């Protein structure tokens, strides 16, 4: 009986020390996907509100249909700015709710660059030099894609003829 009580006490102690009170927070260690918080494409970053986005992008907006994504439990709507080469995933907890940026995709003619000065047209070598310290080598494919961070949270660079053709910031997989 004493061993059972000691075991329960240890489990309670361990669980309470590992928990920050935030159910989405990692149990231990650093932020699991730091690029999601740190990275930007120009002035765009994840978490921007609808109002902030409208001020930062001067091009005409084309909104897609709102869809429920079971993997995240969110309602997601594509906001496309074709004249700027920007597509945003705008997410909300409820249908028609206030939205925030949950993913960013830039393609030509976008002139936006990452915090490490990589943009559309940068070479694969420039990407490797800038993001080699956080490359997911298993998910990257020379000549096609370079994953910085993780497909679960980071940057995904796509290439054509050795140059960046698109940059995705967000979670590419759930």
List keywords for this structure.
174 residues, eight-stranded antiparallel beta sheet, 29% strand, disordered N terminus
Brief account:
The chain has one domain. Helices cover 21% and strands 29% of the residues. The protein is built from 4 helices and 8 strands; from the N terminus they run αααβββββαβββ.
Describe this protein's structure.
With 174 residues, the chain is an alpha+beta fold. 21% of the residues lie in helices and 29% in strands. It has one domain. The protein starts with a helix and ends with a strand. The protein is globular and about 40 Å long. The chain is built from 4 helices and 8 strands; from the N terminus they run H-H-H-E-E-E-E-E-H-E-E-E. Strands 1, 2, 3, 4, 5, 6, 7 and 8 form an 8-stranded antiparallel β-sheet that branches. The N terminus is likely disordered. The longest helix is centred in the N-terminal third of the chain and has 17 residues.
């Amino acid at each position: 009986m004493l061993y059972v009580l000691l075991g329960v006490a240890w489990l309670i102690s361990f669980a309470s020390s590992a928990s920050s009170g935030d159910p989405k927070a990692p149990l231990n260690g650093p932020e699991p996907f730091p690029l999601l918080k740190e990275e930007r494409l120009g002035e765009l970053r994840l978490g921007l509100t609808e109002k902030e986005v409208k001020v930062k992008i001067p091009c005409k907006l084309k909104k897609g249909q709102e869809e429920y994504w079971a993997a995240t439990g969110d309602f997601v709507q594509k906001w496309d700015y074709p004249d700027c080469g920007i597509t945003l995933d705008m997410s909300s907890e409820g249908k028609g709710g206030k939205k925030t940026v949950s993913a960013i995709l830039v393609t030509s003619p976008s002139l936006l660059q990452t915090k490490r000065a990589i943009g559309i047209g940068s070479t694969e070598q420039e990407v490797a030099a800038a993001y080699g310290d956080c490359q997911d080598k298993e998910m990257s494919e020379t000549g096609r894609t370079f994953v910085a961070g993780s497909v679960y949270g980071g940057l995904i660079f796509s290439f054509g003829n050795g140059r960046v053709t698109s940059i995705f910031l967000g979670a590419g997989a759930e």
